[in-house]
Amino acid sequence: MIRRALADGYRRVLSAPALLCGVFVLTFLLALPLAIAMRDMLTAHLGRSMTAASVADGVNYDWWQEFLAHTSGLGATFTPSVIGFAAVLDNVSSVMDAQPEAAPVAGALAAYILGWLFLSGGIIDRYARQRRAGAAPFFSACGVHFFRFLRLAALAAVAYWILFVHVHRWLFGAWANINRDLAVERTAILWRFGFYVVFAVLLAAVNLLFDYAKIRTVVEDRRSMIGAFGAAAGFIRRHPGRTLGLYTANALLFLVVIAAWSFVAPGAGRGGWSMWIGFAAGQAYLLVRLALKLQFMASQTSLFQRSLAHADYVAAPVPMWPDSPAVEAIGAP
Amino acid sequence: MALLAGGSVVVRATQAYDRPVGAARSPRNANYEIEVRLDPVMHTLKGRETIRWRNISAHATDQIQLHLYWNAWRNADSTWLRERRLGGGTAPRPDTFGSIDVTSMRQRRESDTSTDLTPQLRFIAPDDGNAADRTVMAVTLLAPVEPLQEVILDVEWNAKIPRPFNRTGWIADYYFIAQWFPKIGVLEDEGWNTHQFHFSTEFYADFGVYDVRITAPSPFVVGGSGRQVEQVRNANGTTTHRYRGEDIHDFAWTASPHFADLHRTFTHATLPTVDMRLLLLDEHRGQEDRYFRIVADTLRLYGEWFGAYPYGYVTIVDPAYQSESDGMEYPTLFTGRSRYLAPSTVQVPESTTAHEAGHQWWYAMVASNEFEHAWMDEGINTFATARVISEVFTPNDLERRYFGGSVPWAFHDIRVRRDVDGNRLPGYRLSPEADVPSTPTFRYWPPTAAAITYNKTALWLNTLENLVGWPVVRQSLSTYFDRWKFRHPSPDDFFQIVNETAGQDLGWFFDQVYRSSNTFDYAVQDLSSVRSGNSYRTTVVAQRLGEATFPVDVVTTFGNGERATERWDGVARRATWVYEKGSPAVTVQVDPKRVLLLDVNYTNNSRTVAPRGEEAGLKWALKWMVWLQDLMLTYGFFA
């Protein structure tokens, strides 16, 4: 079942390339204004200085540190971690260590999450129906589910808030207590990564729950998000092996992609074409990451639909346009 | 110090009789015989010592002053902890405190009897009058001690070993024991120089012979200053380790059952052979080559540059995680710094290890007053360490750590440079005006003290090297070493030698970098070329933005490759040059060779008519954009 869901998810993602393009454009466009602002800051600091030549042709770490000494806010996020695979380490590390982001970046992240909340309804709907529907029905589905997902996101926000504010503090407070008496760094690292695993599992559990809540909301045209949440929990409880197995398989795929990127991520590079090749490589990597995120959604949708034993299992929506994917599935020959 | 009519400075020693006795290297006027027992269950020390102290100052004294450094962690109101709080440090947990209590002090008399001085012991706070600070103790002697006269004291004490504080203490079964015994201050011609323990400064002591017996449970591997001369297994499961160090001014030791005791020999065609002993912890096995190699390189280069390391032995301690004992120097013993994950192209453990090995010259032998002139050891040594690292450690990649510091990442694109990174310009740039370096170091603002002590000194020494050349600086330092090893030099002793070696009065330079907190910042204000008949009239305006002054070259390059170099004294706020040339100017640079490393903003030092700022900005904005997109995707997990 897991293998079939994976393969089916893969097929569904490939059959809707426009979705991948759409989320890629979202990721690109939301980052673009801040990137332009960053470019302006860097350009302004370099001015007409001869230093700019070495900055363009490679890395001038001396200038870099001078720039950082004279900047704050968005500018302060321009650290060596932007180079190559360090970006991934930096970003995952900042999430796992619950590090706050600079205000402009936090704003972009909030907008990005909102963007995904808006698109998720349409994306799941498209994957569930498994047929081309055009832009109007897609955005119609996005609109229909957006406010439901906002309510669901409020529930999720509470859960994540508890995890990041309380559980994280408790877990890493416990680590600090253990660490206090350790004289061997190797042991401290093992403990720390143990706590990371615990925290990651908790995050994944919440994520899994809300993933299926969204899927059930769309597939079954649910209006009550508390109900969807409960239904998702029930589904996972009834199919723990499948749901967890699929999630783990997708997570492993994610790790494979990350590991591959660690080998091929371009370094600082030079100006001109080298700069654009590096950027293109970065965009290609992001495209794969986005495809993986869609693969999570598509394969989980597939798994849920394949697990529906009979028509009684789903809610019985009023058969009026647009029918829910479940109604459509039941009505299909 | 006396100023003669001609303006030349005659410097005299801080102690009238500070010359070596007999065949010794040092005056050997502060000698200790110590017996100490480590209780690893209660984390305590019980010790007794005999101090033989000779007055080498010009005047008699009727008292003795002693440091009791561990009382810095006796209570939260000690001067050390008060100063730490200024930097935002939190109050320590009650179970971290340590302390030292002198239980008995007797002065020996000629008649083989002794008199109990214990009732007369009193605490003094010469620096800030802090009654809660018990880091300096004074006692009135039976009679004044005349110059060159000796006094013998028998002292007993108990000490509670702190959790790690400032490079001393215990964690798990690792002990690093430093500044741990009642230690006599320095009597200078001007009087006692016995400062309280301060957060941002270190120590000052006279030379002597240390004969120390350390008793610890037998499984413990023990290392100490000096050379191990005896090891006796006792019936009660303990072993007594006897160390003897001559011509040293401090004694530190360490104990852990997890040390591997490794030895290699440093040999050199002209320098003395040195037995290098490395006490390496299990988790850093595999890094012994890196430790030994960098220590050997430091012994070689410092030996060739400044003078020979004469002791014949040195102990390198690989410190335990969280022991806070990393990166600290003691005579003939020092600690390195390493990590469990230590990429081979990153200068850990090399950088710290080279620095602490270098302190054998600047601190252990040239024993300047670290309370008052910390730059004389830390700053000079930072400068010299950066030189060693640049010579022997390549590639030297930048490292950043993630996941709470657990995971290192070496940036192969970014090489750590000696002039900027080794001399620590970025740290200095953040607070260049924090303190005037000539201020006694213990009065620096604690949070920024290191930037002035280490960074600014290293930067101005490298600037001096750029100005007068490495041979002159090397000669200055080797003369300084030769003249002041096993003595206590003052800043003017150093400046006098530099002037002497350079053959010029560099007082103007020391006024700028040492006696002032002013900032250096030169810039190009304008560059324009206007056609004038068959030629171009080029106007160049250089500007001084900072308050400090330094002579700089201003180099203008023209389109036909012609260059015009102007020497500007850098004193006025700005200087203007006008050229009539066949080609327009294409670039101008103030201080193009970057002689002045203290310039806090070098980007504004140049201007070009073909700027590439937009291209550079675009390139790095694209890199940054990928980072931001990746961050978005990471947070997209929650959507």
The helix-and-strand class of chain A reads mainly alpha
Mean pLDDT of chain A: 92
Strand segment count of chain A:
0
Shape of chain B: globular
Q: What is the tally of helical segments of chain B?
A: 11
Compute the CA-based radius of gyration of chain B.
27 Å
Find the structural class of chain B using helix and strand composition: alpha+beta
| Proportion of residues in helical segments of chain B | 10-25%
Strand content of chain B: 25-35%
Question: What is the N-to-C succession of helices and strands of chain A?
Answer: HHHHHHHHHHHH
Poorly predicted regions of chain A are: 310-321
Major β-sheet profile of chain B? 8 strands, mixed
Biggest sheet overview of chain A: none
| Average pLDDT taken over every residue of chain B | 96
Give the count of helical stretches of chain A: 12
Short description:
The complex is a heterodimer of chains A (333) and B (639). Chain A has 333 residues and is mostly helical.
Fold and architecture overview:
The complex is a heterodimer of chains A (333) and B (639). Helix content of chain A is 77%, strand content 0%. The radius of gyration of chain A is 23 Å and the shape is globular. In chain B, the strands form nine sheets. An eight-stranded mixed sheet of chain B has the order 7-6-10-4-3-16-19-18, with no helix packed on it. In chain B, strands 21-22-23-25-24 form a five-stranded mixed sheet, covered by helices on one side. In chain B, a hairpin with a 4-residue loop joins β3 and β4. In chain B, α3 crosses α4, α7 packs across α8 and α8 crosses α9. Chain B is globular and about 100 Å long.
